[in-house]
Structure formats: structure tokens, C-alpha cells
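Phage capsid-like C-terminal domain-containing protein
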Amino acid sequence: MLTNPTIGTKLETTLKAPTAGSGYLAEGGKVAGLTLAESNHSPASTLIAGDFSQMVIGTWGAVDVLANPYAPGYYERGDVQIRILTTMDMCVRNPQAFVVATDVAA
């Protein structure tokens, strides 16, 4: 499962049932036995469940590491600004392997 940290926190603090001791929707980084991953790149109200082995990620070219010792403020502190770039794309091999909820309330 994939969601953003706001929804992840909601799942970790919401009881499965109104009675004490029922446990939370997310416990130990899992929801219903599925691993829960959180990313700030996931939209605020989205939860994705699925078989992530059906996702293909391709990278090509080299990883570019660029140092900029002339960035304002960095030189004075003895720092160097570094930017790392890579080219990649992804696709889903089997779209039926995923379920996307786009209206999850935090």
C-alpha cells in the first residue's frame, strides 16, 4: 500500500473498532497484512493498494552528479551545493493489480 504521511498517521491512530484494545488500522507498518509505505509525493487523499511487482521501473543513461561551489551562501559556510539527476520512467504491467482510492479523509 502507498499513501502520504497524513493518511498514514490517520491509519495508525484510528481504532479498528470503538472498543479499547481492538488495535489500530495500521500496526507495525502494515494494514490488513500489506506493507504500508508513505511518501510526500502521494496526493493528500490517495491510498493505493496492489501488487507492486506489477510495476516496471526503467532507468537509462548515467547518474549526473553536479557540484556548484559558487551558489550564494554555500562558499561562505564552507559548503558545496550538489545536484544529482537521473532519467527514469515507470509503467504498470497489469493495471488490474492495483486499486486506487482518491477520496480518503484524513
